[in-house]
């Protein structure tokens, strides 16, 4: 009996020890402030770089063992709140990564005593609303990334406590309007990303405070239409504007009149159908223009007339069937790369090295080109040029597709064009009415239409001259007939008068 009790006691003690060890092991996985471990035992520590990577370690708080580091990376842990004064013990800290902690609470003054922090990345959290008091102490902060943090609202001038802030990333949040008033009017911000939000309206004068901004990202927002022409007013230093995948259907005239310093403009993956006359007016500094993956089916002959510095033009994967005559003449001395692959072009008469003299790279793959004389001229003029893709094919009259660079084209050579003036402005004067491509017309058809129109005008002039000549001939004939009749009447009137005189004299004799 005693042995049974002793055995039960032994098993009870053993079970208790096992449970104690299990709880201790579980606590070692979820460490709050383990004073017994050094930084290199808790995290991946580099002594020479003073860098500590403590990611994915189920930490519930900042590891004070690494208080001497310059770079602290505690991403993908369970730090749900940032307590006030906790960071003040990290005297040397310059780079802080708090990404993916599902943090929802930041106490006021959490960054007090952190004047040395220059880079702060704490995206992938759950902040909802941020106030000015959250950023007190970040006086020397220069770059802040707050992407995918469920932010809906930021207090007015919340970043007044960060006067040196240059980069602000608010990608993937829930803004319905750009947070235009979150910075001080005297800010030095150069990079602002508002991509992947729910912004549908760009208010008037929204970016007037961002006078030093150089890069603005508005991609993946349901903007659809720019209704306020002064939206971009104040962006005097803007160099790059990204508005891809914003459902834009058109580019209202004057929309970009305040950003004449832009040299890269991204409008890919929108719903633009036609490039109208002077859509890019007041953008003389643009060097890179991306319009791929839209619904463009026609390009006006004066669309690029103001792009005096254009170097790269990407219009791939559209539905382009017609390009206005001389459309590329305004950029013939600057355009180096042209991408027109994946369209519906049948003729490329005005796209060659002869019409675009500075062209170095041309992509025309996946277009239903027709084999005619212009392709022979094109192939000869692009002999030393890089063709984007070797699968540039054309369809012969019998329906067979051939590679234009590998097959001898038997088409009759095109007649040499009459040389015209060199000045593009002289060819496309402001008073001339350019031909507007109609949906379904190719470039060759446009040229044929213009030629037939001029021939019709000449024909009408000749008809008018012929009618005028006939009318003059008829008038002369009537005049001549009348003159002949008058002469005959005079000839027969004289003998009658003489006979009358003789008769009168005979009558007088009879009376005597």
Automatic annotation (TrEMBL):
Residues 413-434 are annotated as: Disordered. The keyword Transferase does not apply. The lineage of its organism: Eukaryota, Metazoa, Echinodermata, Eleutherozoa, Echinozoa. Pfam families: LRR_8. The chain crosses the membrane at residues 458-482. This is Uncharacterized protein. InterPro entries: Leu-rich_rpt (IPR001611), Leu-rich_rpt_typical-subtyp (IPR003591), LRR_dom_sf (IPR032675), SLRP (IPR050333). It comes from the Eukaryota. Keywords: Leucine-rich repeat, Membrane, Repeat, Signal, Transmembrane, Transmembrane helix. Residues 1-25 form the signal peptide. SMART domains: LRR_SD22, LRR_TYP.
